[in-house]
Amino acid sequence: MLHELFTGIPVPVAYVAGPDLVFEFANDAYRRLVGREDLLGRPVREALPELAAQGRAELITGVLESGQPYQGYENELFVRRGGGEPEQVFVACLYQPVHGADGRADGVLLLLSDVTKQARDRRQQEALAAQLAATQERYQTLFETLPQGVIYYDTNGLILGANPAACQILGLDEEEMITWPVAASIVHDDGTPFEPGDSPVAVALRTGEVVTDVVMGVPHGRTGEARWLRVTAVPDARDEDGRPQRAYAMFRDLTKERRAAAALREGAELMGRLREANVIGMVVNGEDHVHDANDAFLDITGYTREDVEAGRVTRELITPPEWMDADADAHRQLKRTGAFRPYEKEYVHRDGHRVPVLVGAAVISYHPLRWVTYVVDLTARQRAEQERALLLARERTARAEADGAQERVSFLLQAGDLVAAAQDRHELLQQAAQLVVHSLADFCLVFLPGLDGVLQAVSIAHREPGGTVGFTDLRDEPVPALGLGTVKNAYVTGRSRLVRGAAPQVARRIARTPRLRDIVARMQPENVLITPLTAGSGPLGVLSIGRTAAHPCFTDTDIAVVEELARQTAVGMAHAAASARDHTVAETLQRSVLPDTLPDIPGLDLAVRYLPGTAGVDVGGDWYDAFPLDGGRVGLVIGDVVGHNIGSASIMGQMRHLLRAYAVDRMHPADVLQRTARAQAQLLPDTLATVVYALLDPATGELTYANAGHPPPVWATASGGSGYLDDAPGVMLGAPYDGGFAVGHQILHPGTSLMFYTDGLIEDRRRDITDGLSALVGVMDRVMASPAPLSAELTCAAVQVAMLGETPRADDVCLLAIRLTGLLRRARSSPGSVLPERLHPRSPSVRKLTGPKTRRSCIRYDGYGAATQRNRQSGSQS
Q: What is the pLDDT of residues 478-489, one digit of tens each?
């Protein structure tokens, strides 16, 4: 019978009999577990000496002699399989005595279940929980230590990054993950493949909605085995139209859970067969008492068979009072339907402790009423649930700490960006105070020392009733910190102070300052953190940060974050102050090497503008010059030395004097640039510079010029003509070049304006040089179209406003404007000269710009003397 009953089941089963515990039966599953085939007919101590040495034979003997079963959970055994070294396994076992006709135990039925994987998994989970707890204070490694996989995608589905958990779960290195998952390799929970574009990340990027708890199967990257994941995709980094540009995929490995669920299902199928082996409790109940029960039930409740046979065991005896109503409902259902659905309850053990059980029943006789109750001991499951709940609680705590750590890191990164981007200390303090209110507090009051060294409140950022962050500048109405001893103490000692219950004393000390009083009175600060702004060896100010009673008090972590913000802000203030001083010095040096005045030339109106860069402290090498020469001519110069430092300004001064000297000695512009280039190669061999040198005769309007890699000057007339002096390109000074410089010619009529400039006027981060050149032509057209002719000074002003505005500049700008007011004598027409009014529309250097169908020139200048011209036309193209 044993052979027929247990041979085919996958649970290891064996039967030993007699005082020597001789194997009379062992199914294949049992033989595989212990690693022996030749068991039948051999005693346990001889067939399995390694198990006997571990006390298993004595344990079985004890069951045989006592007649009491033994049940163990996760018993550790060492078995020798295939003649190899002993191998550690964990088993759940039930040693059930089998009684003969005389009531004595003839043998023992051995029921085993290999729980090695579950035990190791549980221990591994416990180890993982300990590791998670250890990472709570190391928040900087949050991303790397998360047990869940996290992958970061861009808008095209390409992977930007993955944490180690993701690499481990998927069996892929981060470098191998370019796109994941591959649509052809993933399947739904029911095994059907995903359609292209239906993966959680693709849906989140397409819809902008969070996609939660999608179960999907993917192949492991190394083993190829199926891994089941629960995936949540979160869209991120939305553009101005609300479309996500990034997405996170967060997933958890469900493979073990699914395997465990499958094992439970298999166990349920075995349950019916195991009942006969006394694995679960089974009771025959009547209306008055328990009529029969197996040993498993007696083990659960602690009563003896004598108690059952004497009728002393009743439902009321073993059921706690709070479960009586549930039992009554089940009893009514039993009478009505012949069974009741299983439910969980508790039994009262004979010694008084509670035993969690799952019970179900079916009627076996109605007259008299008898039913069989099946009882499953849930003690092990309850213990596992408690352990799992403890692990989940630890995980939630770790996750909460990690989330807080991530928020703090993000906050400090924003603070660092503010410090890097601020232009001056007041802007920096405003941005820092608003950041604090947005993330950490309800107001942030800034104190700075005045000229007399006394601390004064200069600004406050505060939360408005609608939740927005407001800012009030108090510099026009500074509030002395008199009486605020805590503020002064923090300033002097350099240590933060936390004041609790601060509303009354704060209100009292600012009562005479209406603007500040109204703001603080509305918020009623409960807790105030006062932190010094310290950089280097001395304090720079104090931040007073408050929270209302609606928010918790500042924690140690909050204080550490605020102190780090104050430190970064103080460093930024020190840098801003140093930058302001250095910028002033740089600008002064730049101006000192430029001409003090312009010459007074009859027939010419001259004006200049030097505009230092507003962003940064480095001085540039831009320069201009205008000087009289023999024959009533005038030399005009605009140039730029490559580089932004003190050396560039010094070299600029030398270049200016070199070019002046050669201009006096040699009148021809090409010769002047050629000689200057040679002198530069000998005296300043490591420098580069661009320059335009022009020679103008005010008596005739004749203009001769040469260009060494500089943006071409622009001209414009009142009649609507305009263009660039771009027909004499050349390489910049200092560049390898053995040739000479080309010479351009132009005849100017009275009223014509010229604009010489440096590249900072037409090029910046917001605008490329092509657009800048086109814009400059348009500005000059508008200037010349004014009803009254504009002076050179007004022309400079108009160009500055139109081209630069109030935006910060990273580069210096020089402007040299020349307006020909009249000829001293009648102009002579030289054979090679062309008047602007008679320029051919297809001239490669300039265009005549007239009428509503204006053809405009757009020069693309490459910075080394090469100029290319494009034509744009309003209206029809001629």
A: 665 544 567 888
CA distance 155 to 247: 7
Q: What is the pLDDT of residue 157?
A: 81
CB-CB neighbours of 815 under 10 Å: 25
- Kindly write down the DSSP assignment for every residue of 780-793, as one continuous string: HHHHHTSSSPPPHH
Q: Determine the length of the chain.
A: 878
Displacement of CA 433 from its chain's centroid (Å): 23
- Closest of 609, 790, 632, 602 to residue 696, by C-alpha: 632
Nearest to 13 by CA among 615, 106, 2: 2
Q: Which two tokens stand for residue 449?
A: 């020392």
Q: Considering only CA atoms, which of 659, 667, 739 is closest in space to residue 702?
A: 667
DSSP 3-state percent helix, strand, coil across the chain (nearest 5): 35, 30, 35
As a whole number of angstroms, the distance between CA 473 and CA 876 comes to 55
3-state SS, residue 648: helix
- The pLDDT assigned to 267 comes to 43
In DSSP notation, 574-631 reads HHHHHHHHHHHHHHHHHHHTS-SS----TTEEEEEEEE--SSSS---EEEEEEEE-GG
Three-class DSSP labels, 485-538: HHHHHHHHHCCCEEEECCHHHHHHHCCCCHHHHHHHHHHCEEEEEEEEEEECCE
Going by the DSSP 8-state scheme, the letter that residue 552 receives in this structure is P
Asked if 540 and 574 touch (Cβ cutoff 8 Å), the reply is yes
| Bridge partner residues of 354 (DSSP) | 348
pLDDT per position as a tens digit, 746-795: 999 999 999 999 998 998 777 788 889 999 999 999 988 888 778 999 99
Torsion angles phi and psi, residue 570, rounded to 5: -65, -40
Closest to 695 measured CA to CA, from 657, 723, 659, 738:
659
For the stretch 276-291, pLDDT in tens is 556 688 889 998 899 9
- C-alpha pair distances (Å), 821 with each of 356, 604, 803: 108, 6, 25
pLDDT of residue 852: 31
* Contact indicator for 216, 118 with CB cutoff of 8 Å: no
Cα separation of 61 and 55, whole Å?
A: 10
State which amino acid sits at residue 85: E
CB within 8 Å of 557: residues ≥ 6 apart = 404, 408
Strands in 65-134 per DSSP E: 70-80, 86-99, 105-114
